[in-house]
Write a structure and sequence with these properties.
294 residues; mainly beta; Jelly Rolls; 9-stranded antiparallel sheet; 7-stranded antiparallel sheet; 9% helix; disordered N terminus; binds 2-acetamido-2-deoxy-beta-D-glucopyranose
Length: 294
């Protein structure tokens, strides 16, 4: 692996043997790999353009989270959306309500096989995010940016930004719209922190898949991760395989309700609603999953 044992003993130890899946993109990974879904991520959830139109690897031109970059050389991942970012699930109805670019953890070319390997016992999901000052978000909208999604479409936990989608649309953006928010399966707020610009915001969420609990860890830039919640029950999540799901990094922008649409359409967040079609972006690094039970 790419970790150097001599350095490991002096810093927070995340040993290579306990890493189930490593999404820290090596310098050797290319645009061609992104377009071909080769490497740690499946890149099919996107709009009509090639995957590398929306998912860009920044090489050595951009510095990833300083938490791991003395141990491992990784490329920053830039995710963007524009008005073409309408995902059409295989043979299904275009998701006109959303604009989205998702990259999904995979192993040996399979995302679902990985779920059964890394979502057992106790495992810890690490991820870091930074704003893209050139391509700002619109905080009147809700954004879902990191989540584990079982096949029922719920989220074991999620990292969210913006104003939560509501019908009818709230008259003003939420007071904490610009905060990074970690929510549990029932969408209860577990932790929030201001999404300050130009900084890496580091998270880890430790999940006990048997006891159905979550614990959130956080730090900014090069500070060590610290627990910011106790071990907290996540009782609405499903036990066993039904509760396992794909690990997504995403720029998923929900619509605002369009008052001119029918009430059925207004309730169909996936397919209807208002999107401005703006080009927006976020930066990601430091994605990996650690086995805690070992
Ligand atoms: C990938 O293949 C290796 C070697 O067969 C295996 O050990 C590993 O568990 C596989 N990973 C996934 C996610 O299937
Ligand atoms: C943000 O979204 C709101 C609601 O659709 C819209 O009125 C506003 O113009 C948007 N801002 C930008 C910068 O696109
Ligand atoms: C899980 O729950 C069982 C039964 O309540 C308890 O004995 C065990 O210590 C718990 N495990 C963890 C990791 O909290
Ligand atoms: C965005 O795309 C939608 C769906 O294709 C289209 O109806 C809309 O006019 C586009 N908006 C802009 C600003 O280009």
């Amino acid at each position: 692996m790419l970790l150097f044992p001599a350095i490991l003993s002096t810093v927070i130890v995340v040993s290579s043997t306990s890493v189930y899946w490593d999404g820290r993109v090596p310098q050797t990974m290319t645009e061609w790999d992104v377009d071909s879904s080769i490497g740690p991520y499946l890149t099919v959830v996107k709009g009509s353009e090639a995957a590398s139109h929306y998912t860009t690897l920044l090489g050595t031109s951009s510095t990833p989270t300083p938490l791991w970059n003395t141990l491992i050389s990784e490329q920053v991942i830039s995710l963007t959306i524009d008005n073409s970012s309408i995902f059409v699930p295989g043979g299904s109805t275009p998701q006109n309500g959303f604009r989205r670019t998702d990259i999904i953890a995979q192993g040996n070319g399979s995302n679902s096989a990985l779920d059964a390997i890394m979502e057992i016992g106790v495992s810890k999901f690490y991820f870091s995010v930074k704003d893209n000052e050139q391509l700002p978000l619109n905080y009147s909208h809700e954004y879902q940016i990191v989540f584990i999604e079982p096949s029922d479409g719920t989220h074991v936990f999620e990292l969210q930004l913006g104003t939560p989608f509501s019908n009818p649309t709230a008259p003003t953006p939420a007071v904490d719209a610009t905060f990074l928010k970690v929510r549990d399966h029932a969408l209860n707020l577990m932790f929030e922190t201001p999404f300050t610009s130009g900084q890496w915001h580091n998270f880890a969420v430790q999940i006990d898949w048997n006891n159905l609990t979550l614990q959130v860890f956080y730090s900014a830039d090069d500070a060590d991760l610290v627990a910011v919640t106790p071990v907290t029950s996540n009782p609405t999540a499903s036990p066993g395989p039904a509760g396992q799901g794909d690990f997504h990094a995403a720029l998923l922008k929900l619509p605002l309700v369009d008052p001119s649409e029918s009430s059925a359409e207004q309730n169909d967040v996936v397919h209807y609603g208002i999107q401005e079609g703006t080009t927006e972006g976020l930066f990601f690094s430091g994605f990996f999953v650690q086995d805690i039970s070992a």
